[in-house]
Amino acid sequence: MQVLTKRYPKNCLLTVMDRYSATVRNMEQVVMIPSLLRDVQLSGHGGQIQDGAPDLYKYFTMLKAIQVDMDHGLLPREEWQAKVSGSEDEAENDAAETEEAKEERVSSELYLEDQFHLHFSSLHHILTHLTLKAKEVTRKYQEITGQAM
């Protein structure tokens, strides 16, 4: 696994982001044949397989896609919305926004610091969880290929 070269405080978001990127890069280096991960389920707590859970191949591709977004930035907002909504017209969305929604948006802007802390802690938690998933995908691949140590 790659060693972090930058030094940030332990719970700093940059540390968590670097750890996630390093773990995903390690996963990419270990997983030479991603198709072996198809139809292999990730074990849940206690070694039980979760019903309806995505296979490890989907986790592998998702983890890589998130890392690319983190390293290279997100798509511009318009492109992202077009991709997600299937090219819905943004003008229609703006026209459909009610007066009540506008008031709610203005009042929510007053609590920017609270929103920042909520999103910051959520992002920290999500990246930590995704790092653990990347380690699990790597470990499972090593088990499948007989590389487990």
Defining key terms:
64% helix, 149 residues, mainly alpha
- Average pLDDT confidence is 78
What can be said about the biggest beta sheet?
none
Radius of gyration: 20 Å
**Beta strands, count:** 0
Number of helical elements: 6
Strand content: under 5%
End-to-end C-alpha gap: 14 Å
State the order of secondary-structure elements, H for helix, E for strand.
Answer: HHHHHH
Structural class: mainly alpha
- The helical percent reads 55-70%
Low-confidence stretches: none
Molecular shape: globular
Summarize the structure.
With 149 residues, the protein is an all-alpha fold.
Q: What does this protein look like?
A:
With 149 residues, this protein is mostly helical. Among the domains are: 9-41 and 52-72; 112-148. The chain is built from 6 helices and no strands. The longest helix has 34 residues, at 112-145. The protein is globular, with a radius of gyration of 20 Å. 14% of the residues are buried. The model has no long low-confidence stretch (mean pLDDT 78).
Blueprint (SSEs and pairs):
Layout lengths: L12 H18 L25 H17 L4 H9 L4 H7 L2 H11 L2 H34 L4
Keywords: Cytoplasm, Nucleus
Protein name: Thyroid hormone-inducible hepatic protein
Pfam families: Spot_14
